Amino acid sequence: MNYNIMLIGFMGVGKTTVSKELSKKLGMPEVDMDSYIVEHEKMEIKDIFEQYGEEYFRKVETNCLAEVQKSKGKIVSCGGGAVLKDENVKLMKDGGIILLLTATPETVYNRVKDNNDRPILNGNMNVEYISSLMDKRKNRYLEVADLIISTDDKSVVEIVKEIENHLHKMTKNS
């Protein structure tokens, strides 16, 4: 493929899980941006946040995204806040299809509640906070997405099949 499939969405919607399965199904290499950043910085994301702050993390995220976008034919699982910067969206759109995965705040909470590696949720691990943060980002996600898939009450196999069907229609129509 001459483009990358960029998975975006709030934390806990299934980006990493879906990207791994989509990678197997389509035979495309998968890049998890959070893992890429950890490898690049040689420290965990929560430690980057604690030691350097969110602004530093976002700069690293943009630089790593630019590196990943230098070649095409990959499935890229982006961090939940990656689309907040215009520069990142431009990088994603340049040779990429932006696929938004969505889920309800309750689904997200149930998926992330036992995970301590979500620095944005530290001290705020509840449905109300997740819902308010999702509301703040919702319009941004919707305005940049080329394709939107809900992950609520679906298996990863069902989600990947739905994505494949949409990609087939998109490439057929272009």
Strand and helix layout:
Blueprint: E1 4-8, H1 15-26, E2 30-32, H2 33-41, H3 45-52, H4 54-68, E3 75-77, H5 86-93, E4 96-102, H6 105-112, H7 127-144, E5 147-150, H8 156-173
Parallel strand pairs: 1-3, 1-4, 2-3, 4-5
Helix pairs in contact: 1-8, 2-4, 3-4, 4-5, 6-7
> How much of the residues is beta strand, in percent?
5-15%
Radius of gyration: 15 Å
From the spread of the alpha carbons, the general shape counts as: globular
Strand order of the largest sheet: 2-3-1-4-5
N-end to C-end Cα span = 13 Å
Main sheet attributes: strand count, strand direction, barrel closure: 5 strands, parallel
Overview of the molecule:
Helix content is 55%, strand content 13%. It has 174 residues and is an alpha/beta fold. Strands 2-3-1-4-5 form a 5-stranded parallel beta sheet, with helices on both faces. Helix 1 crosses helix 8, helix 3 packs across helix 4 and helix 6 crosses helix 7. It is globular and about 45 Å long. The model has no long low-confidence stretch (mean pLDDT 90).
Short description:
The chain has 174 residues and is an alpha/beta fold.
